[in-house]
Every structure is written in structure tokens, then in C-alpha cells.
Amino acid sequence: MIQFCLDDKRPFGVVLIRSGVAEGGPVADPYEVGCVAEIVEVERLEDGRLLLMTVGTERFRILSLNHDRAYLMGTMEDFPFAAETEQALAQAANRLLPLVAEYLRILADTGHVEFDSDQMPTDPEDLIFLAAAAIQVDAEQNRRFWKRQSHQRTQRTDKNLPARAEIHASDAQRRPGHFLAQLA
Fold first, then answer.
1. pLDDT tens digits for 134-156?
2. E strands in the chain
3. CA-wise closest residue to 96 among 145, 162, 142, 148
């Protein structure tokens, strides 16, 4: 699949699996909402494997699936966020900014994440995406977050982010290999 995407300069879809597995087992049954991933960098390893860097660009909703290849293909439609006023986004971002900054500061104090507060996004949408990427939640919580139509989700974002960060930082100190975060 990746070679097909590279040859044709095509993106691919990333979707959380509801049941089954990605390879070598029961056929994957994905959730209905996913993200388009564009390949921005490829490194070929000597053993034939690839290291990929991708960027998520937009959400989509699966309309139908095709199981006739070694990987899933399907028909999808764009699934953009509902339009909101600049003022509503700015207000939500103003509430979210101190929570995310404190969360990242606590994680940085563990030494497992680099964080420069001067690099915090000023664009409300970018801040929402940073928060979603940085917050350590299980896959199902993350799926529910991204499935929501509105950026107003920031109003429902966990107000205990700093406390949650302390729990994750404690876990990171016990199992550093389990705790990975990259903020770019």
C-alpha cells in the first residue's frame, strides 16, 4: 500500500480499528471517521523497511469498504468540522491555552518531552490539534474526541489536564519506553 501511495503521490487514510487486526488476523473493522495522512518524508532502511513521516490533513467519513486487496480501500467523503465564529474559537482557545501549557510544562519536567512555551500555537485550531496530540488518552477517548463535529469540544476538554499530566509523568518515570511524546 505504501509503495502504491509513493508511486502515485497519494495520501492514505488512518482509521482506528474497532475490531480485528491490521495484518495477519481477523479482518479489520474500522470506525467510520479517520484522517487523511500525506507522506512528507521517506527513509528506506537497508532491510527494505521504510521510515515514514506523515502529516494529517483532514478528516473523512467512510461510506463503504473494499476488502479485495491485502489492505482496506474504501469510498469516503470529507468530514470537516462545523463552522464556528472566530470569536467562539478564540474564547475556547483562551480557556484551553493555560491548561495545555501547564500540562506540557509538567511533562517537560519529567525530562521525557521538550517544551518551549514560546512555541505554543497562537492559532485556536492549531492549539486544539496540539492538545489532542499531546494529551495521553486511550484510543477510544481520542476517537470520540475527533468524531465530534465542533471545535466547541474544547469546552468539554478535561479541566484536570495538569493533574492528568502528573499521573502520566509519574508513569513515564517508571516506564520511559512506554511514554513517548513528540511535539513539533
1. 776 667 766 666 666 554 444 44
2. 12-14, 17-19, 29-30, 33-44, 50-66, 73-78
3. 162
